[in-house]
Amino acid sequence: MKERTDKRIIRSKSAIKKAFLNLLYRKPFEQITISEIVGEANYNRGTFYSNFETKDCLLYEVIDDVLNEMINQIRKPYQTTERVDMEQLKISDVTLFKYFKENMSLYKLLLSDHIRVDFRFKMAKAIEKMFIEEYKYELGDESIDIKWLYTYRAYGLTGLIIRWIEEDCPDTPEYMTDQTLKLMTTATKVFHVKKNI
After folding, report:
1. Other C-beta atoms within 10 Å of 35: how many?
2. Using CA atoms, how far apart are residues 24 and 36, in angstroms rounded to an integer?
3. First-residue to last-residue Cα distance in the chain
4. Rounded Cα–Cα distance for residues 71 and 157 (Å)
5. C-alpha 40, offset from chain centre
6. What is the pTM of this model?
7. In the prediction, which pLDDT does 3 show?
8. How do residues 25-44 score in pLDDT, each as one tens digit?
9. Residue in 12, 10, 123 with CA at minimum distance from that of residue 63
10. Residue 60 has pLDDT above 90, yes or no
């Protein structure tokens, strides 16, 4: 009996989340009512409140689901190894940009002004947290504060992903993977100041 109940809960939560996202594509978060969500999902208000305390809780759970899936995509190529040489990685093994392209409309929605959450910041924080907890870089320069390296890389990668999504993914996922790996392994020690004409 408990397994059937658990499956029912999973099914109703999933339907409510899907209905919520469908509505969010059409109008901003503030304009969506719980009655609309349950109507779209073919459930009642009681079912909503047995799964979520508030509409905000629903939004945060949807965001957490998306971020967890994103982190799983980042982890994918490294699940069977302990030491990763980024210069030796096969582009075909890194599926992150393929995942973003397949889910571009969802990410564009979460990056839009339809929600009042800073999704950009949440993406960067999730990546930074994963880098800190799961990666240990080999550094040539011991004077670098590793904390700032994690922050620099996490926010740089997030910015690159967001710009690519906002521009409707103009380059292929393979090209973006190649560029990301090159950026992660490139050091620039000198730059020149361009003179305005």
Report:
1. 11
2. 11
3. 77
4. 13
5. 26
6. 0.88
7. 58
8. 999 999 999 999 999 999 99
9. 123
10. yes
b/e per residue 38-77 (b: at least 16 CB within 10 A): bebbebeeebbeebbeebeebbebbbeebbeebbebbeeb
Paired tokens of 51? 């799964």
Q: What residue type is assigned to position 31 of the chain?
A: Q
Distances (CA, A) of 177 to 31, 32, 157, 164, 173: 38, 37, 11, 12, 6
- Residue position matching structure tokens 């080999």: 138
CB atoms within 10 A of CB 146: 14
Q: DSSP letters along 80-113, please?
A: T-S---TTT--GGG--HHHHHHHTHHHHHHHHST
**Which tokens hold the place of 85?**
């040489």
107-154 pLDDT, tens digit each: 999 999 999 899 999 999 999 999 999 998 888 878 888 889 999 999
Contact 100, 160 (CB under 8 A): no
Say if residues 37 and 22 touch (Cβ distance below 8 Å). no
Residue 17 · residue 62 · CB < 8 Å: yes
